[in-house]
Every structure is written in C-alpha cells, then in structure tokens.
Amino acid sequence: MCGIVGYIGKKQAAPVLLEGLSKLEYRGYDSAGIAVRGNGGKIDVVKTKGRLQLLIDKTENGNALFGTSGIGHTRWATHGEPNETNAHPHVSEGGKIVLVHNGIIENYAEIKEKLLSHGYTFYSNTDTEVATKLIAYYYEKYGGALEAIERFILRVRGSYAIAVMFADLPDRIYAARKDSPMIIGAGEDSVYLASDVPAILKYTRNVYYIENLEIAVMETDGVRFYNVDRTEIEKMPVHITWDAEAAEKGGYEHFMMKEICEQPKVITDTVNYVLKDKKIDFTEIGLSDKLIRATKRITIVACGSAYHAGVVMQYVMEGLARIPVRVELASEFRYRKPILERGELVVVISQSGETADSLAALREAKRLGAKTLAVVNVLGSSIAREADFVFYTKAGPEIAVATTKAYTAQLIAGYLISLKFAVVKKTISEAASAAITDGILRLPAQVEALLSDRERIQKFAAKMTGTKDVFFIGRGIDYALSLEGSLKLKEISYIHSEAYAAGELKHGTISLVEEGTLVCGVITQETLAEKTVSNIVEVKSRGAFVVAVAAQNLLPKIEKIADFTITIPETAPQIAASLAVIPLQLLSYYVSANKGLDVDKPRNLAKSVTVE
Length: 612
Ligand code: G6P
What we know:
Layout: E1 3-8, H1 13-24, E2 31-37, E3 43-49, H2 52-58, E4 69-75, E5 90-91, E6 97-105, H3 108-117, H4 127-142, H5 145-155, E7 158-166, E8 173-178, E9 183-187, E10 190-194, E11 206-209, E12 214-219, E13 222-226, E14 232-233, E15 238-239, H6 255-261, H7 263-274, E16 275-276, E17 279-280, H8 289-294, E18 297-302, H9 304-321, E19 325-329, H10 330-333, E20 344-350, H11 356-367, E21 371-376, H12 382-386, E22 389-392, H13 405-424, H14 430-452, H15 455-462, E23 469-474, H16 477-493, E24 496-501, E25 518-523, H17 526-540, E26 545-551, H18 555-558, E27 564-568, H19 577-594
Bound molecules: 6-O-phosphono-alpha-D-glucopyranose.
6-O-phosphono-alpha-D-glucopyranose binds at residues 303-306, 350-352, 355, 358, 401-403, 605, 607-609.
C-alpha cells in the first residue's frame, strides 16, 4: 500500500527518492510521483500513472531534477482512480505546500466542504489534496508550520503518514503519522524518511520510529521530534542489524521464489528463537507459565494469509492444549462488539505488524481488558509495540506481495505456542511433546527436499495456464491449508479459486464441478484421509481433474484416483501443513510466472494493508 520517501541532505535528491521508491514497490501501487525543491526555491512536482520506471524515465533517473531535498510517493488508489492528477505529491494553491500521504482521511468530505466555503478549489478526487489544503489553510491562519500540522492532527480522523514541504521554509521537511507506518533514518549530513526500513538501508542503519501523533522536523544536520502539543521529545535511534542483501533478489528471477527457497532457514531461525535444549523457553516473549495456566480461551485475529496461519493454529492448539480457540478475521472482530471473557488471550498474527484491521482488533482486545500476544515479523512495528507480549517470527524482510516465508514462520510460531501451552497445562505427555519437537526440527531438511524436487511441479504448472477455476479441498488442518493454497493461486495467477472443507462440497459447490474442473485435494491427516478421499471420488466421478497433495503414508489411498499426485514426507499430523504448503506455493508461483504475470507485484494488491 502507498509508499512514502523523503530526503534532505547534500546529494541530489531525486535519484535518492527514486531509489527509495523502488525499494517500496513491493508494497503495491498504481502511480508514482516526486517533488524536489529546486535551487531557486520552487518545488517541482513530477508524476506518472503506472510503473515507477515511467517516472524514472520521465526524470532521466532523477537527474533532470535539481535540488537536495524532496519527497516521493507510490500511490495505491483509494479515493479516485489511478491517474496522474490523483497521484501524489499534492500541492496547495500557488504551490506553497506540497504533501504526500499514506492512509485514509475519513472525514475528508466534511473538511472539503469547509475548505470550499473558504474559497479553496480542488483538482483531484483524493483525500490527500484535502489534507494538503487543510494544512495550507491552517498555515495561512496561524503562521507556523508546526502549528499547522498540529491543527491538522487534531482535525482529521483516520490514518495517515504524511511528509510535507513548505515553499517558504527551505531546508526542512515535516512529517507526522497516525496508524500508518513511517520511519526516519539519520545519516551523515542527511536525513531520510520512508514507509519501511529497506528503502533507506543503503544509506543508514540508524532508524527512528515515529509514534502516533508525533511530528518530525527533518533538516540536513538532524531531526527533531515533537508531541502534538509542540513540546520537543527525545528519541533514540534503533540500530538495524539485518543486511540490506536480505531485501535484494540475490540471483532469483522473483522475490517470491527467493523467499520460497529461504523457508528452511526461516523455520530454523524461528525455532531457535524459543527452543533452548529442546525445551520451549518463553522468557524473551514474557508470557509466563502462570499466565498460560490462567488462560481459559484464546481468540486469534488476523487478515489474509496470517488469518490462514491462525486457522492452522486453532486446530493445533485445541488438539494439543485442549483450550477453546476461536479464529476470526480482524476486520470482523473489530466491529462486532466481541465478548471476551476473563482469562481470554487474544493472539494477533501479522507479518507487517501494521495491518490496519489487525491493529484495530488488537486495540479493541486491549480496551476490553484481554491480554494480547502478537505474532509479528517486523521489529518495532505498531502491533509489536502495542501488544502485551510479542513472538517475533524470524522470516526476515519479505518483499513479494504474496507471502510465503512469513506464513511459514507464522505456522512455526503457532506450533511452538501451542506446544508450550500443552506442556504447561500438562495436556500432552513428555514423549508426545518430544516427538512433535523432533518433527519440527526435521522440517527444514524436509522442506529442502521438497524444494529440490520442484521441476515436476513446474512442468505440471505449465499445463495449468489456461485453467479458469480451481477448487481446493481438505479436512481439518488440510482445510486450513486449502484456504492458503487457494489464496496463493488466485492472488498471483488471477485464476478463480476457492477452498472448501471437503465435507461441505456437496452442499452446493459440487454443482460447479464439470468435465475438466481442476480440484486439488490436500490429504495429510490420517484420521480424516478416507473421508476426503470419498469426496475426491465424488468430484472425480463428475469429471474433475484431480491433483492430490498427500502425505507419503497416505498415498496408497489416493494414488489410483488422482490424475496428478504430489507427495510430502511423513511427519506429525499437527505440523504437516508446513510441508504440504510448499508444493502449493510452487504451483502458484509457476502458474503465475508461466502466464508472464508480475509475480511479485500482483495487480490491485498491497503488501502492507494500512487502510481498512
Ligand atoms: C496483505 C498481504 C498478505 C497478508 C495480509 C495480512 O493482504 O498481501 O500477504 O497475509 O495482508 O498482512 P499482515 O502483514 O498483517 O500479515
């Protein structure tokens, strides 16, 4: 979702801004623009619809724009179609104020009315132009930039990260945020601003996290921070230790394939985070045995693939720790007036830690008095900062919009949390716990083996490019995994796909099955295998072409019925999703790549969904 960058220093700003925007491309966007303060003091704005490359070409790699300070933006359209007029930066009358924004100003219509009555006119359909002119209005009225931004913060509802330049205040960029991510990096004689760390990592590792309702004032020699009442606040930078390389393609054609292949390491790193001498140690997470014992119910909230990881966790936690678990979409949870009981733990799963609905759900859970545990990948993200306890998944930076390795890390976190609860609550024997732990420790090598045998899937995927509809079916954890397999396929290949609990198929969906319809059956759960196989026979007898992803030991049950089988190594049923997801990811990847689609940046999608 929209990406923001800013730079003030001694270098030519435009190439730095464009480079930063290219690092944020993964967030998803449909237009882009930059604004640079020229040597004469005038702020030049250049915008394009479509890919960033068009902006790079239009500005000759940024070399056509002179000046050492500027802001830039990649826009993911919310208010108004993706075109050059609606693209950011937006400018106030006479070019006095230039602004970029990520988020949604919810009361923009009402503010627009007010500004219209004061004689302002509007050229775009965006809430951002309204924000720009609101700041212009306050600046005119009160005279100070800080005061104008403070008034803006107090007046608007919704979410925003904004970067603002004032034409008559050279050598300064102002920034503020509420519920939309933005960080500031301090280099030598230069200050950088971005929606996310990878955009500035090439220049500096010293990063400031701006809190909600804080204002930053960037100048060449440093940055100052203010509260909304304009009192200056002290802030210490965080030193980023991970490597910029981690966010580069490293020889792979797409980030998605690179990230799929990183999964063995991701599993190892996430396991090593809490497994000490084969015992799960939650000291770093802060969740005490006492609190675990006192937990009577768990609600898991998340969006997208993180929600699917939550569905797997629900089965594993209920099975192992015998605690009732409910898993819910964050966008539903936040508005349905949830009833949380004493002893309820709310688990929020989020790769980015910035998803607007998940963050709101976390706040709602806290407001209702529940204890909260975040399972988050991005260090220092909003959800990580606001939750009572944090389990950091160790996936490293994930760039492809369609998640793979972060989902895998979320599964691992789910197993380890469930196992910890089961051990503390004594709902499983030591031997059973040790067997699952050993199984988890074997996963990296098993995933490696599945990855090394990907050519077969690639060949099969080549035949799937013309497919119009796919149904994924499974029971129990296999159903939870079907949800993810189906999402993966549709989001990057644009093939219509649905996931169904296999037993539900005959309550309607089977009417869609006809000669050649592709059905993917997931069969890793021994106790449910025969039931799913019966459902597969039902679709097969109506002409379906069946792909089966089956555990080695269950293969004899399905081999003769399926048209194409993919086998996964044997493991404990609770953790089988970590193996079965690999061929599903590969299948989606190869179908998308074969169709020549933009695998890493599928249309209309954003990596980090910071608006609701
Ligand atoms: C977007 C991404 C998905 C992700 C979902 C939740 O839709 O494209 O890959 O699963 O947001 O994101 P989160 O950062 O909260 O895990």
